Amino acid sequence: MKNDILHRLTAARPAHLDPDRPTPSSVREEELATLMTLPRATGTARTTPEPRRVGRTVLSGLALATAAAVAALAIVETAPQKPGPAPSMTSGSGSQVLLAAASHVEQQPAGSGMYWYVEEHFGSLHKVPGKNYTVDVRTEQRYWTAAAKNKRWSQLLDLGARPATKADKTAWKADGSPTSWNLTGETVTYAGKGEIQHDAPGGNADTVKMGDLPLRLLATLPTDEKALRKRLFALVDKDYNGPEEILDRIVVDTAVQLATTLPSTPALRAAAYRLLAAEPGVRSLGDVKDHTGRTGYAVALPSPYEPAPEIRLIFDKSTGMPLGTETVATRSGDGVSKGELQSYTTFTSMMWTEKAPPFDTDTEDPGPISVPGDAPDVEPVR
Q1: Which of 157, 216, 249, 371 has a CB 3.0–4.6 Å from the CB of 150, allowing a cystine?
Q2: pTM, whole model, 2 decimals?
């Protein structure tokens, strides 16, 4: 996807990043702060189609077909039907909620299998230029992780865009129910494009992003939260040159990964929860529903930087396992209101399996990005 990556990076680059123009210090600080707090996928997925963007830039290149092998997964679930007694997550401060969730999650069986499989749905909300409604640009991403081999496979699908709320749907219908939208220079469609990418270990575009842990290190991490924080800080301090407050934020970001999608043992996942419980300003959001309608309990991790979004974590009440994450604007501006949902991720499957990924090579280059005026691929059925 070399050409596609160049197209996307060129189109997305702000003007102040041109080589011949200096970057104002205020812009540099804001962008660094935002980068440090972005929720990310883990492992070695390619960077450009990464669906965890928090701003109003549209998600580039969405798509991947075939759920065939997924339906046949031989699994060992990580959550038991009847978890043992643990503190309640229905009341208390954000720290108390995380500590209670830790008590629940560490009681889950470790599970076993060749691959740790995660399926997640991601949505990014965008106001349609010149219209009075917002669309939810949706993708699905799947991961197969072989931690012992330090390898990871990923698959990305474009699920299409939809009006974000009932009010948005009403406004969309009043607009003639269009089936494609041009958002900041790229066209998204109601129908979606299906499969657009799969990455196998050793592919040309494999990268390791800031804050990501080498998978082989998971088994070496301590399960005491204070020791875990110290170890994570040492790892990021070794790899990145930055002030202590920035490194601290990378530690928090890495702990979120350990708490959610990485193949952490129950004890390590619980340690990550307890590390996050010690964060200043963490607060409880009470009962919530995730974006599939499942009831859970949520906490908010405030950003230490005003421009960056607040990260919200949603947990299953009975098991303490993560259900999803959300990012919420911390200030108004650029068409975004403070407190407005910007993106969300819903974890629809987390399990161990012996079933290998259904591919072992990277996707071929799909060509240049879409341009304004592209017609939708398929007319949706309404």
Answers
A1: 216
A2: 0.72
